[in-house]
Amino acid sequence: MDNLELLRRQYLQLIEPECLALPSLDSIRLPQVQAYLYETMFREGSLHYSPPDRYKIRVLKKLIEIMESAIIDPDEDEISDDLAACLAQLMSTPQIPVTIAALQKNYVTYTMPTTSPNAATISTLEARALLASSGTTGLRTWEAALHLGTYLSAAGGSLLVKGKTIIELGAGTGFLSILCAKHLGAKYVLSTDGSGEVVDDMVSNVYFNGLEGSGVIDPALLKWGHVLTDELFESSCGIRRFDIALGADIVRAHSS
After folding, report:
1. Over the chain, what HEC string results?
2. Residues above pLDDT 90, as percent of the chain
3. Which of 16, 176, 182, 192 is deepest in the core (most CB within 10 A)?
4. How far apart are CA 208 and CA 217, in angstroms?
């Protein structure tokens, strides 16, 4: 995977601009590199689920700052008109206050850990700075889930879930459940969380990833010490039995 593809993946994952794998001065000076950045990250309509405008502005400012530093010959080295126009358009659009923006949910796209330029993705709606009304932290995908997803995506890990019936506890955004159901060949996944608000968002995330009505995955509310509804444990073959239970960064609230 080249650095530009890594940057694109980090951008879709809303990595902080200061932590992005930004191009070198020699690279970003090239017109074809600037064209790639525009076409794959900033051109309107190029992304199915685009980052929020405020984040786009921060990243564009960082990139254009590097482009300005890369100029050696002002007559030869130029900054992409498309990127400059995109930043100007975003800057001229009224932005909501930072305090309100921090509470909003945004699309985050995660890319499968492979060097293929056409790697599969998972998109979720997340509020990284917000706790659900119940106090749960399930409105964002945490690092432990990403690490477990990387393990399960490897040859050895995928054998644990392929063709298996799975229950995930504390699923949050449903990232791991969706990964298993959509990309890792799980037979069925019951994706559970103890917060109704989180489960509602999980239903949306299942839809965003084209799994609604697939019969491969079901989001469900599961509070510790309470049973799930009978129909979630039943299948055409009788009582559903789970081959494996998944959990990453599970937090149990005493109130539940």
Report:
1. CCHHHHHHHHHHCCCCHHHCCCCCHHHHCCHHHHHHHHHHHHCCCCCCCCCCHHHHHHHHHHHHHHHHHHCCCCCCCCCCHHHHHHHHHHHHCCCCCHHHHCCCCEEEEEECCCCCCCCCEEEEEECCCCCCCCCCCCCCCCHHHHHHHHHHHCHHHHHHHCCCEEEEECCCCCHHHHHHHHCCCCCEEEEEECCHHHHHHHHHHHHHCCCCCCCCEEEEECCCCCCCCHHHHEECCEECCCCEEEECCCCCCCCC
2. 70
3. 176
4. 13
Half-sphere exposure of 94 toward its Cβ, with a 13 Å CA cutoff? 1
What is the percent of the chain with per-residue pLDDT over 70, rounded to a whole number? 89
122 three-state secondary structure: strand
Distance, CA of 208 to CA of 219 (rounded, Å): 14
Cross-strand bridge partners of residue 107: 125
Residue 124 in contact with residue 107, Cβ under 8 Å? yes
- How many beta carbons lie within 10 A of that of residue 95, not counting itself? 13
Task: Please check whether residue 174 is in contact with residue 189, taking contact to mean a CB–CB distance below 8 angstroms.
Answer: no
Q: What is the pLDDT of residues 162-213, one digit of tens each?
A: 999 999 999 999 999 999 999 999 999 999 998 888 999 999 999 999 999 9
In tens, the pLDDT along 207-250 reads 999 999 999 999 998 887 776 665 665 655 556 789 999 999 88
The whole-number pLDDT of residue 89 equals 96
Token digits for 70?
């890369």
Lowest mean pLDDT among 4-13, 37-46, 134-143: 134-143
Q: How many CB atoms lie within 10 A of CB 98?
A: 8
Structure tokens at 102: 């921090």
